[in-house]
């Protein structure tokens, strides 16, 4: 599923946040969106997922304008995990994940074999099968984050958008979540787009980076071409050196 | 299944409602009256207590269901149609129709008043470009409730004394002198609205995850929210049309039903709230009409006495949790 933004302009009440952005999210790859707080990462991600109507421009999912498409059918092709989903009181992990099947179920249609199978696969992928009966609020932050990811995995879409899936997680849990998405991408060809804050993690786990600044798109492409001192200065106003990561050889940002 | 407990309570409560009152019936007489349809008990049940209990069950159920619907929709235990001013709005519409002698079916008048109050509350709380926080709606709703009640009281001072007394009884919430017509009037639309609510339970379940995730799962969030709110307002109005704007039943029933049945799914919680509402209103009416010899209190007085402490407790809990 390729996702393309054409001349996208997005704003709130007349205040423009993103102005005339052209962007291509490559199919079957892992893309990370980076940039300083308030530059419009969440706004862009929500627009790519048809949750925000752009002031002008289009978002095309394999050629179809998503803002003109049937939202229920779109939910079978594209899933989004927003920055702050709400957990219903007392819900169990299993129940939460089952709600990810909503787009595949008709009005009043019963729970089917394939729905159960999709939920089981999703729980398996995030290693929460043994906690399915536990209430969500009794889980640790990392486990809870994985439960939300299982919900969107159960949606069984070829394209997955995530807004800061690793915020609030310690380093080990960040690695866990990002390698899980990477694994899913390798195993099933899932296209992943996530908003991330940790530049080094993004470089390590992504094929493509999209770097935004206050003034719009700064650079996009492979981590090596995007994470340069020049681009970091333009996006964050950050003076930094970039060295190869001694473990992976990917670019590693060292602020000065 | 703890749902069975609620059903047992409802059956036991209904039997008590038929047996007791200003005059108590013997269980044997009740049985004979029910089976043969003859004797003084049959008369009592057929013309007085039967319709009264039937109306109480139906009105309590629709009010309880409406409360649970709004509480889930707003994610706030205070968001019930009685707190939001919808029931007093429906009540005002009925007083207006009495005062000006309009001839229109009571349920339609009440529904119109409830919908108008709901539109006004959401309209006043609405701010351009922002999602209205539930607390603003609740506060505006409280104001709407006071305003419409005051207007009802004002209109009643203009009525001749006999009619004013009747209207006064009515706006307090009363189940006196109900007949089988009232029973049909609440059960038929109530059953249809119950089905409508259950049909929307899965949408409500998805909406509970937050607007963005729900939209990502393919929901048309605003349309879904409007459909649920309309169902909730009509449910409340259906109850008000036959029982008056009885306070606190809608507020209490959702949490009470969930406590009794342990239901966690949205559909289960809605059904439990309907059952709890039926139970609360019926028992409150039973106490109201049999507690004091020679005096039949309007049921609204009783639910007020029961409900006000509950509201205070709820408010203090919300304050402790930092939500107020
Ligand atoms: N609902 C809204 N109404 C008005 N303005 C908004 C709204 N949501 C975001 N904004 C504004 O739009 C700009 C971009 O916000 P956005 O949430 O997209 O930033 P972000 O890059 O995701 O930031 P963060 O890293 O803090 O999550 C900000 O200036 C923000 O104040
Ligand atoms: Mg954000």
TrEMBL record, chain A:
Cellular component terms per the entry's GO annotation: plasma membrane
Listed GO MF terms: ATP binding; ATP hydrolysis activity
Biological processes per GO annotation: iron ion transport
Source organism superkingdom: Bacteria
Subcellular location: Cell membrane
Membrane topology designation: Peripheral membrane protein
Listed CDD domains: ABC_Iron-Siderophores_B12_Hemin
Residue ranges constituting the ABC transporter domain according to the UniProt record: 3-239
PANTHER family: IRON(3+)-HYDROXAMATE IMPORT ATP-BINDING PROTEIN FHUC (PTHR42771)
Family to which this protein belongs: Belongs to the ABC transporter superfamily.
Annotated protein name in UniProt: Iron complex transport system ATP-binding protein
Source organism per UniProt: Salipiger thiooxidans
From TrEMBL, chain B:
Signal peptide (from-to): none
Membrane-topology annotation of the record: Multi-pass membrane protein
Family: Belongs to the binding-protein-dependent transport system permease family. FecCD subfamily.
Location in or out of the cell: Cell membrane
Entry keyword set: Cell membrane, Membrane, Transmembrane, Transmembrane helix, Transport
Coiled coil stretches, renumbered: none
Protein's UniProt name: Iron complex transport system permease protein
Listed PANTHER family: FERRIC ENTEROBACTIN TRANSPORT SYSTEM PERMEASE PROTEIN, FERRIC ENTEROBACTIN TRANSPORT SYSTEM PERMEASE PROTEIN FEPG
GO process annotations (BP): siderophore-iron import into cell
């Amino acid at each position: 599923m390729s996702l393309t933004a054409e001349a996208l302009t997005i704003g709130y009440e007349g205040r423009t946040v993103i102005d005339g952005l052209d962007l291509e999210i490559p199919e079957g790859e892992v893309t990370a969106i980076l940039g300083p707080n308030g530059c419009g990462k969440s706004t862009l991600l929500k627009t790519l997922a048809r949750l925000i109507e752009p002031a002008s421009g289009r978002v095309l999912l394999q050629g179809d304008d998503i803002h003109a498409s049937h939202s229920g059918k779109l939910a079978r092709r594209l899933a989004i995990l927003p920055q702050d989903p709400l957990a219903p009181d007392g819900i169990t992990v299993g129940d939460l994940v089952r709600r990810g099947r909503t787009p595949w179920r008709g009005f009043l249609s019963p729970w089917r074999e394939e729905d159960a199978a999709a939920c089981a696969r999703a729980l398996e992928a995030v290693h929460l099968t043994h906690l399915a009966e536990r209430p969500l609020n009794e889980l640790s932050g990392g486990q809870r984050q994985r439960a939300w990811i299982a919900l969107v995995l159960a949606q069984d879409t070829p394209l997955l958008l995530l807004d800061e899936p690793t915020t609030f997680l310690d380093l080990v849990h960040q690695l866990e979540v990002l390698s899980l998405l990477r694994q899913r991408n390798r195993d099933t060809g899932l296209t992943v787009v996530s908003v991330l804050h940790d530049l080094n993690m993004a470089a390590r786990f992504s094929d493509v980076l999209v770097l935004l600044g206050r003034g719009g798109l700064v650079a996009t492409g492979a981590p090596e071409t995007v994470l340069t001192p020049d681009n970091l200065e333009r996006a964050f106003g950050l003076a930094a050196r970039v060295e190869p990561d001694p473990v992976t050889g990917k670019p590693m940002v060292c602020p000065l | 299944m703890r749902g069975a407990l609620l059903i047992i309570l409802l059956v036991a409560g209904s039997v008590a409602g038929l047996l007791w009152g200003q005059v108590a019936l013997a269980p044997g007489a009740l049985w004979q009256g029910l089976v043969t349809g003859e004797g003084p008990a049959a008369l009592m049940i057929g013309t007085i207590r039967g319709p009264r209990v039937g109306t109480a069950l139906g009105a309590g159920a629709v009010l309880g269901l409406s409360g649970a619907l709004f509480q889930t929709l707003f994610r706030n235990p205070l968001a019930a149609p009685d707190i939001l001013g919808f029931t007093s709005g429906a009540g005002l519409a009925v007083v207006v129709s009495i005062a000006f002698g309009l001839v229109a079916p009571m349920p339609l008048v009440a529904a119109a008043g409830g919908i108008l109050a709901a539109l006004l509350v959401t309209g006043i709380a609405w701010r351009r470009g922002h999602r209205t926080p539930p607390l603003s709606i609740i506060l505006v709703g409280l104001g709407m409730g006071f305003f419409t009640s005051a207007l009802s009281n004002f209109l009643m001072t203009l009525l001749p004394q006999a009619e004013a007394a009747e209207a006064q009884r009515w706006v307090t919430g009363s189940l006196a002198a109900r007949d089988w017509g009232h029973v049909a009037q609440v059960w038929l639309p109530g059953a249809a609205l119950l089905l409508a609510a259950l049909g929307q339970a899965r949408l409500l379940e998805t909406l509970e995850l937050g607007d963005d995730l729900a939209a990502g799962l393919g929901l048309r969030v605003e349309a879904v929210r409007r459909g649920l709110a309309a169902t909730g307002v009509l449910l409340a109005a259906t109850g008000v049309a036959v029982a008056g704007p009885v306070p606190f039943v809608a507020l209490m029933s959702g949490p009470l039903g969930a406590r009794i049945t342990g239901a966690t799914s949205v559909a289960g919680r809605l059904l439990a709230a309907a059952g709890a509402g039926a139970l609360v209103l019926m028992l409150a009416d039973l106490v109201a009409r049999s507690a004091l010899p020679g005096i039949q209190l309007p049921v609204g007085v009783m639910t007020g006495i029961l409900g006000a402490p509950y509201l205070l407790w709820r408010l203090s809990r919300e304050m402790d949790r930092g939500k107020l």
